[in-house]
Batch of 3 targets.
Target 1
Amino acid sequence: KPGVPWALFQRGRLQYLRDDLEGAEASLHQALASDVDFVDAAVLLGEIAMVEERFDDAERYFDRVRRLEEPRVEVESRRGLNALLAGDVQSAMQRFEAARAMEGGNDPVVTGGLAWCYYERGQHEEALNRLAALDDSLRDRADDDPWRVWSRDQKARIEENVSQERWIDEFDRQSLRNDW
């Protein structure tokens, strides 16, 4: 039935998976209008806002979920991603740490997010260690598991970035050798 919040949520979820963000938002808003405490709809609205780079809106949705129910890893990790994408590394780190405390550090989003926080703070070795630990914690999965591939690729990117030498030429010479 179109007015049933769960049906509206499912329609919104499917629209989101088809990249119909406007349709998804409309369906999810209808679901919330029918049931103001529908946390799954609010979480997905927050994710859509995050994807659309409306970071403040996303945080408001995630905050609403936190007021309605006990904290959960899924929401805290999304709050961490939202803060990281918004450029607030300190808040991202706090949220990922809160999620890690709930889950025990087994969530790849949390571990990967923390690795990027450390990288952004200039702590390259800690970032590399976290990414290696992520890959190691998933060794029971296939080598082509998306999280394992991602962690190895990010580790290689960071290693390459750190190994690069930076050359600076200020062009502040007083005399030119070729007498131009």
Target 2
Amino acid sequence: GDPTRARDALELGLHACAGSDRTARHRRARLLLTAGSVDQADGLHERALSQHTRARELALEIGEVHLAASASANCGTIALDRGDLGAAQRELRTAGAALIALGRDRDAGRTLANLANLSSLIGDEDAVALQLDAAHAAATRAGDAHCLGPRSLLGGDVELRRGLVAQAPPSAAARDPSSP
């Protein structure tokens, strides 16, 4: 859809739930999370980060741990996209732990897959393997096929870097120019 129209509608929604009771703050936190996602998809990272941070703060105030963890995961993804690997790692670890504890397998799988991608970028292949296994387990429990593909690709890349082409998935081995 049109991001400008979405932002306008979200802004109207935020004004409509300006109260201070728990229900109004919960609605505001959800709208801020959605507004951040619209901005994030549109490449407006600073604005998105501000929206997600505000959503997390409101969610924590009212004890909405899942909503706060989702906002943290989004902040981590933005930090990863911007190359701020330290912030990305902190946010994604925090979000992943909370989502696992809550049993939110779909969200946990995707967050852990992002964390594995980060670990790959910094060359921590042992962490990649552990995070991919955890992401795969969560995605499998959730039936989230979207999360399962990156595990094979990233896992294959790790095996290729380790020189274990025979153990890499066929798609990764096919990309290795030295394989027969």
Target 3
Amino acid sequence: EQGFGFLEATRQAMTRVPVAAAFGLVFVLLAPRGAIDPVAHAGALAADLEALAIGSRAVRGVTTISRPLDFRLAVSSFLLTDERATVERLGPHLRVTSGDGASVTRLLFPNPVLLERAGRLSLLHAFPAGPAGSKVVAISLDGGEPAADDAGAAREPAGHNDAAVLAFDEALAGAVTRGR
């Protein structure tokens, strides 16, 4: 309610929902009653999330991309890009380690996807956007100032790699969504 005095909760059909913060993320329970326990929800993925130190990382950029593909397919496209990858199911969550061990992707069910590679981390939130579309918000994070040997990467346009990943299999994803 603080900072939102200009909104009328009743008129705009707003409902108070449980919110909690953990691991540098905000967890929201989309039900007016109930409790949310982020540590219990994370389960076996909790140690990974703690080690990522998301709350202490700097934001490098935010990119929003809309694509004509099903929400579930948008999420799965981040998980199924390496045929040699090792997939671990941790309750409702997944940890996918690339075949060369250079990257780790985590799906914290139902959202977000966390992509970790070369000391950088991207948080990807995929949302349904209409009957046959998805919107993905990609937040690129790092550990702070770039190292001297990493200065070139810091000049890369924000979200460059995230956009490439999203475009990776767009034609196939669109065909699957349309049932062709």
